[in-house]
Amino acid sequence: MILVISYPGEEHTDDVVARLERRGLDVLRIDLADFPGRTGLSCTWNSSEGTQVKISTPDGTFDLQDVRAAWWRRVRHPTVDPAITDPNAAAFVLSETNEAVDGMLDSLDCPWMNPRAADNAAHHKPLQWTVARQVGLAVPDTLVTTDPDHARRFIQRSSGCQTVFKAFIAIADAWRETRLVEASDLDHLESVRLAPVIFQDYVPGVDLRIIHVGEKFYTAELDARSTSYPVDMRMVIGEANVRSVTLPESVEERLLALQKRLGLVYGAIDMRRTETGEYVFLEVNPAGQWLFVESLTGLPISQAVADQLESMANGMNCSPYSKVTASAIGGSH
Predict the structure, then answer these.
(1) CA 116 to CA 125: how far, in whole Å?
(2) What digits encode the pLDDT tens for the residues 225-249?
């Protein structure tokens, strides 16, 4: 059985699950928001029955000991019963549910795409940039700060270099595009005291969205240089010229080293290729989107994700780091 953890309507998950089911594979999909009300759990450790890890859903009861591979996609948090109105009681229920569900999932002896602890750690951009530099990838000069004076010095250190500021993570309810720092923004630098801000050298060039699956890379070039907003290609995908390209072998080797160090089996990597041909690493999203790349280029990414999960479930073609946890990220390389 292949365990898929994602919420209903997540279109990337829908596509891959449909492919797996058409192959006749047994797929169990759960939404963590269904715990503990719609989906219950019973885990036992005793001398007569051994270890049992069972969950009950509206579709039946399933033994997670049968899971041979798991996919940690985009997830939601458990839901507290609205009848619990006391905030302290609600916090206790949520804490207890998280402890039980997380422990249950971490107890499964199967390969993950991506391992949960590694996936969580790899979302942190400061870790990404540190590891990227360690494996030989070019990273733009970057500052993360709550110090207005440091921010001002970074922005003004070179008159010939533009600076962008960006969010750490895209939140649906507070989405922010990457923006160039304008002269008017300098009057508001005191606000960085309220929350850390990423400032980074702006790298002109062609965007690359690179989908990494297992040992393979699927790369799309998105040339947004002549669009209405070349600073952030996410804003102008419909205007950009898009085509599939092949990365230099040396860049793929460094990216694979990055992914292995981070413990990721899957990742959506963003880079820029400059006018001089330099490849500059911007970030990796462990749960990034790929369907827009697939639709614009025809690259068989959904098939590759399904193939990877099937191979992992069959014990074949598994990445040697499929069970890497966050504690191993800082190890030697």
Answers:
(1) 17
(2) 888 887 888 877 888 889 999 999 9
